[in-house]
Amino acid sequence: MELLDSKTLIRRFHAFYEEYMKDEIKKTLHAGKTYLEVSFYDLSEYDFELGDYLLAHPEDTISIMEETLKQFQDEDSKSHIKIRFLNLPETERVLIRDIRSEQLGKLVFLEGLVRRKTDVRPRLTHLEYLCTNPSCTYAEESIKVPQIEDKAKTLKVCPKCKSGVELINKNLVDSQILILEEIAEQLDSSADQPKRINVLLQGDLVSPFKDSKTNPGSRVLVMGLVKEVPIPTRTGAESINYDLIVEGNSIQLSSEEFSEIIISKEEQAEIKRLAKEEGILKKLVSNTAPSIYGYDRIKEAILLQQFKGSGGVKGDGVKTRGDIHILLIGDPGAAKSQMLKAATRIAPKSSFVSGKSATGAGLVASVIKDELTKGWALEAGAMVLASGGLLAIDEMDKMSDEDTSSMHEALEQQTVSIAKANIRATLRCETTVLGAANPKLGRFDPFGDIGKQINFPPALISRFDLIFILRDEPDKKKDDMIADHILQTHRDKSKTVTEMSKEFLQKYIAYARAMQPVLTQDAIKKIKDFYVSIRNAAGEDENGIKSVPITARQLEAIVRLGEAYAKVELSKKVTQRHAELAIDLLLYCLQKIGIDPKTGEMDIDRLTTGVTSSTRNVFRQVQIIIDNLERESPEITYDAIIEAAEKLNVKKSEVDKTLEKLKQEGVIFEPRKNMYKKLN
Ligand code: ADP
Ligand code: MG
């Protein structure tokens, strides 16, 4: 394209402004805004060649556009107004992985997930000098030294007369860097590492952390110029290695519908037809992870997890989650990892991490030092980046308690709050979690109590709606079947080809997910009856302590599951039958883990607080004994405790254990052997 001189360009842009943007410019100037939003489509509609010229020589053309704008300003108030493009043609769209040096200086348009956002910092744009020689022209008119690189460029002498110069102005602009990461759906395979790019935002484009629009985890569209920045060397010498950076021209939230699954009319009809079929759930289950033998209830659960509960905002503005979190705990080799991989395949949006390499910070969010700006930055972890989708976390038992506890808020409130250094932010984290872990000693002890072999803090456990136990017990018949199944699928790959394609299953899920089924009165009654009966079923002991089998969290889990069951059938209502199915699935899980060996009753408390109601009772009884004895004398002898305990039929060994625990917890101390005192 031939070069146009600046006079011509100014004339043509002026005409464009007159024709298309007069009102807009007036409004912008009136409101004192520092930028003007221009639609590329308008520009190229008005003057096709001008649009093309802009794409060919973006940097110079944009500064001419900005210069031309000055002609619309009053003589005495000519502030610099930036041009921000609202849109660009699809031809300028690039994938983050495809940005190369050939795009240097080009205007591009890309989409990504914000992984990191730095603090807003002033950045030097240019230094302004005056010459000290009064007869030099630069004594009147200043010399501007633009700053692009990491190290400031200064001026020692006047470029014209070589006299000394005086710094009169430092022009600073607010700036911020975002690191954008490729969106999972844009990757060829889930094994690919997503690529990243730095985006520099300046002036009106920067936003503090309280403005959540560009916070980590958001999906954005960025238009900008591709530039190079030298990678600083350790010695400070000029570097030969450069990094590419996108200097943002505009940034917008990208609507997630962008890559939403498209379902054709015919497919919709097919989905509706299938949903009415008897046994549709079974059919969907048989199409889930066909290469894994058995585990139908787990497959059912991970399928329901994809359909989700309705969730929503309650009357008082409290948001309840619709996500169904599931945890698989089992022996090694029980196909846990396989199940997780299978789930990520059916989920429309998903990612996979291993607890072995994940830290709490890497999972939710962290505040780190940013190398480019040398300031603090907020970086999203895998859970935040997976917002709106499924995150499979394998080997959760390898994570420390500290790391898992950072997930609590994300699992229940679906947000991540962080306050560190000078950064305070709340990030959205609507992620469904499917976790897998080995039991305490790596493998279940078949004679031991399962509940005690689950090595997770109660606060974490209680956030999972369903917990499945996978046992790898030798069982001749089952082993035969699994062996056949595995060997057959190895021999004949077509054996695992399902009737329903993966794409169709995803479409089914996406279509059904949009349903918002509501609980019918019958369903409410069913769930309530179940809840009340099971909470009362647990017998009271002589001290009036009940083993509470189920808590309000499980109640919500039932509702979510009921909603998911309704969605499978595209039903607008959660019926009594759906409620029964949900209760049945929950009971299935609870029974595998929660039977109190002493009472034979279900006791979710043992799981979620780490003590069974019978040991909790012993605990209470010993405390009561100590309290009573203390009234007689502040020093309590061991023998007196044992004597009192015997009367209540509490075994000596249990008392010993309890005393040890009370000492550990600092309730009592032992100033002399076999002599206790309460700490007050
Ligand atoms: P885990 O993560 O529980 O330790 P994996 O998911 O790595 O176990 O599974 C180990 C291997 O055993 C896999 O190759 C898996 O295919 C096979 N396997 C175990 N149980 C089954 C099953 N029920 N059906 C099919 N394959 C199974
Ligand atoms: Mg595994």
Quick tags:
five-stranded parallel β-sheet, alpha/beta, 4 domains, 22 helices, Rossmann fold, 680 residues, binds magnesium ion, OB fold (Dihydrolipoamide Acetyltransferase, E2P), mini-chromosome maintenance (MCM) complex, chain A, domain 1, binds adenosine-5'-diphosphate
Radius of gyration using CA atoms only: 33 Å
Bound molecules: adenosine-5'-diphosphate, magnesium ion
> What is the strand arrangement across the widest sheet?
3-6-7-9-8
In the predicted model, the low-confidence regions spanning at least 5 consecutive residues are: 545-549
So what's the CATH class of the largest domain? Alpha Beta
Q: State the secondary-structure class.
A: alpha/beta
The CATH homologous superfamily of the largest domain is called: P-loop containing nucleotide triphosphate hydrolases
Helix content: 25-40%
Outline of the structure:
Residues 545-549 have low confidence and may be disordered.
Model description:
This protein is of the alpha/beta class and 680 residues long. The protein folds into four domains: 6-87, mini-chromosome maintenance (MCM) complex, chain A, domain 1, CATH 3.30.1640; 92-254, OB fold (Dihydrolipoamide Acetyltransferase, E2P) (Beta Barrel); 265-607, P-loop containing nucleotide triphosphate hydrolases (Rossmann fold, 3-Layer(aba) Sandwich), CATH 3.40.50.300; 612-678, Arc Repressor Mutant, subunit A (Orthogonal Bundle). It is 36% helix and 22% strand. It is built from 22 helices and 25 strands. The strands form seven sheets. It has a five-stranded mixed beta barrel with strand order 3-6-7-9-8. The protein has a five-stranded parallel beta sheet with strand order 13-16-19-12-20. Helix 6 packs across helix 7. The longest helix has 26 residues, at 6-31. It is globular. It starts with 5 loop residues before the first helix and ends with a strand. Residues 336-337, 394 line the site of magnesium ion.
